[in-house]
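Postdoc handover notes: sequence design on the structure in folder B. Input tokens:
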């Protein structure tokens, strides 16, 4: 006899789910995608389907993740639960099985988080049968459920139950189990049932990620729904947890539970602060600013460090860190954690004298003030190390432990899962100090680790990715820089002015090093206006240095003058620390070289010489600067030039080292020395196409090439272009002159002319236009479309 699929052992809350079970168990190849929020009955449904399959003698198995789905016969029904918890490799394995329409497969998952692979699985299974959507139940669903159990509710009780729970499956299930008709006699509001539900909801709220928990708490205080345009991710997460409806509104009993868990009748400023923190977590800077202003205006909240922390972080993100320092100066902090955040702002703004502002003592009862921890915590140790490392980095002779302290601080801060606002991220500070010390490997490591660990929460992701992209450029990894930049562009929240500065720096630097002069002029033009609206602080000196060199390359000697002046003044107030000042001074030297103004090099060159006894980076820069000036004066010592170029590369300035070697090669009369220096330049800064070939990938999405690229138009003759000829051809198509091509790939203009003549003969080009047409066909076919 057929097994009855009545709801005696489970409650998915939807009659269509039970009908679908019978259908699935009866078809030749059961395939379906089951989706629903937490507690909607997905696992229960799979259990019931497993019983049906067993009863009907149909081969099936539960997939625990260890077995290879490809080894499961297509006719055997593979049941996969909690797809959203599987790793990428497991999702890929299930995706391969889902792509086979003859492979039996039933998958259950929450609607969030949802990767591309999960979407493809859903689409493939939906082509076989409609998806089973769980999570919401109707009045008739509940009535059917009760009838099958021999239970009955009054119409008023049922209406109240559905109104309170919003028809959300897991809440309806708990409401049914908590309901006692005796409690309804004199209680139309069903307070006992609501209390039981609110207790369960409060427990679930305690387990949520902090941004979502704060958002739910914020919504519980408001009568309207979402206002932030950036809330899609949090809405999806809240819906998957069974706390929000699809439109982002709170389930009624969730609203009351969240309110009940909050302090009674909070002050308006406290409410504003909580709302501001939720907006900050979602990356909405403008909403955060408007809300924190309300909290700042309330003098009763003067003792809450969170108000100052949030306000200062907002000003820092706006590119006005000095104003953030003013906030801390106006509102003395009480807790140790806030004191470190204040130090980040004060030092970043060059206001070291404000560090002497005393912190307030404990209250009269002896209780620890503010957020002071009674015992060391992960976050407390992280901030303590960060404070020590940052202060040490500003010394003339930083102790050897400086960078180690900052790296450990970044790692521990990530481990603490802290998402509170702060003026600058520990990973960014550590990376900046590493770059200042010529240690690009450590800078890459600390940023990679921070991105992987989600340091700072969602609001910090774009900033970490942009720094990672810029460090990749410094490390001669342009393809990686572009890929990481693309990731940063996909972050949904609005860009802050500070992050926009870093984004423009990445674009400008890529254009300067890997594209032509017109491209650099375009990107600098886009960056110039944004830069004018920002103040420079300690943590934006490296982007400023990169922009200064790019501006000089296009002949702009004026736009950045006030920013450089402010940056140098800030450094002087901090005692001109070598770790932070050397790169800006080096950029000043490069500006003089690029603008052909050797008389302007003096102040920056002298500053590097003065810092040399305290910094090997400054020593290298000072020595290289002297060699460079000699080269520009016509005195080329090939040994000295190559030594200086390689020394620059060793401190993270391979691009500058390559330029120095290229300049030396172009000014020596010794052809053997010129060839040697050009080879050195190509080694330090290989063309992007050559680098992509060596790693098996092509730039801009092209196909990997070997030693040569076949020309389709001459296939019958078997003609090919060498790797060097492909480089030259690309630059010709970009409109560069022989001299510009030689400067880009470090060969002489005469050699460029020789390559082009050779290419013209091999392609049998009869004119310049014919040559360009054939080159475009050749390059597009061999390595993808040109930009």
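Designed sequence:
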């Amino acid at each position: 006899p057929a097994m009855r699929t009545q709801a005696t052992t489970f409650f998915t809350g939807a009659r269509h789910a039970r009908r679908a079970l019978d259908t699935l168990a009866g078809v030749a190849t059961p395939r379906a995608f089951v989706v629903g929020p937490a507690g909607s009955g997905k696992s229960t449904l799979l259990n019931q389907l497993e019983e049906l399959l067993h009863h009907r003698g149909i081969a099936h198995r539960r997939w625990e993740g260890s077995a290879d789905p490809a080894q499961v016969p297509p006719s055997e029904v593979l049941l996969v639960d909690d797809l959203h918890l599987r790793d990428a490799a497991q999702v890929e394995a299930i995706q391969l099985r889902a792509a086979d329409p003859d492979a039996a497969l039933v998958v259950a998952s929450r609607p969030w988080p949802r990767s591309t692979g999960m979407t493809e699985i859903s689409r493939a299974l939906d082509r076989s049968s409609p998806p089973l959507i769980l999570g919401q139940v109707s009045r008739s669903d509940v009535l059917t459920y009760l009838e099958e159990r021999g239970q009955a509710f009054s119409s008023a009780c049922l209406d109240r139950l559905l109104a309170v729970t919003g028809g959300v499956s897991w809440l309806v299930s708990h409401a049914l189990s908590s309901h006692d008709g005796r409690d309804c006699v004199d209680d139309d509001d069903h307070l006992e049932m609501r209390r039981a539900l609110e207790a369960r909801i409060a427990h679930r709220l305690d387990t949520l990620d902090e941004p979502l928990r704060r958002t739910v708490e914020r919504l519980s205080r408001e009568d309207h729904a979402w206002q932030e345009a950036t809330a899609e991710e949090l809405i999806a997460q809240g819906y998957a947890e069974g706390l929000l409806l699809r439109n982002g509104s709170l389930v009624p009993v969730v609203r009351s539970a969240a309110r009940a868990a909050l302090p009674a009748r909070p002050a308006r400023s406290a409410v504003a602060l909580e709302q501001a923190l939720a907006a900050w977590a979602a990356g909405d800077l403008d909403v955060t600013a408007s809300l924190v202003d309300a909290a700042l205006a309330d003098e009763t909240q003067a003792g809450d460090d969170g108000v100052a922390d949030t306000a200062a972080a907002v000003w820092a993100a706006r590119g006005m860190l000095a104003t953030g320092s003013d906030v801390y100066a106006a509102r003395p902090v009480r807790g140790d954690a806030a004191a470190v955040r204040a130090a980040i702002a004060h030092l970043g703004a060059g206001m070291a004298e404000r560090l002497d502002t005393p912190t307030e003592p404990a209250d009269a009862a002896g209780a620890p003030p503010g957020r002071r921890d009674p015992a060391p915590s992960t976050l407390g140790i992280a901030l303590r190390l960060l404070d020590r490392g940052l202060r040490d980095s500003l010394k003339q002779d930083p102790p050897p432990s400086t960078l180690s302290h900052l790296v450990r601080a970044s790692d521990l801060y990530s481990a603490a899962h802290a998402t509170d606002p702060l003026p600058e991220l520990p990973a960014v500070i550590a990376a900046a100090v590493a770059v200042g010390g010529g240690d690009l490997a450590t800078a890459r490591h600390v940023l990679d680790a921070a991105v992987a660990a989600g340091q700072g929460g969602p609001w910090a992701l774009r900033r970490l990715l942009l720094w990672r992209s810029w460090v990749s450029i410094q490390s001669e990894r342009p393809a990686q820089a572009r890929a990481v930049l693309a990731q940063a562009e996909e972050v949904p929240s609005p860009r802050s002015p500070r992050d926009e500065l870093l984004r423009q720096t990445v674009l400008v630097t890529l254009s300067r090093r890997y594209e032509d002069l017109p491209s650099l002029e375009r990107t600098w033009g886009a960056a110039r206006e944004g830069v004018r609206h920002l103040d420079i602080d300690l943590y934006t000196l490296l982007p400023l240095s990169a922009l200064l060199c790019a501006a000089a390359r296009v002949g702009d000697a004026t736009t950045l003058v006030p920013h450089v002046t402010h940056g140098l003044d800030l450094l002087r107030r901090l005692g001109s620390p070598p770790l932070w000042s050397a790169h800006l001074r080096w950029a000043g030297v490069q500006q003089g070289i690029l603008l052909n103004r050797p008389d302007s090099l003096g102040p920056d060159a002298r500053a590097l010489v003065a810092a040399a006894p305290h910094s090997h980076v400054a020593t290298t820069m000072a020595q290289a600067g002297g060699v460079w000036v000699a080269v520009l004066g016509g005195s080329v010592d090939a040994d000295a030039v190559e030594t200086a170029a390689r020394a620059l590369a060793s401190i993270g300035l391979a691009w500058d080292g390559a330029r120095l070697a290229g300049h030396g090669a172009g000014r020596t009369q010794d052809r053997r020395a010129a060839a040697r220096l050009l080879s050195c330049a190509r080694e330090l800064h290989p063309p992007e196409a050559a680098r992509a070939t060596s790693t098996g990938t092509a730039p801009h999405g092209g196909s990997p090439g070997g030693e040569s690229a076949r020309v389709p138009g001459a296939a019958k003759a078997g003609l090919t272009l060498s790797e060097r000829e492909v480089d030259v051809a690309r630059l010709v198509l970009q409109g560069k002159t022989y001299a510009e091509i030689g400067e880009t790939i470090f060969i002489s203009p005469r050699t460029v002319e020789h390559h082009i003549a050779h290419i013209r003969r091999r392609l049998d080009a009869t004119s310049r236009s014919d040559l360009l047409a054939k080159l475009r066909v050749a390059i597009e076919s061999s390595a993808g479309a040109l930009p």
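Context for whoever picks this up: The chain has 37 helices and seven strands. Don't rerun without checking with the PI first.
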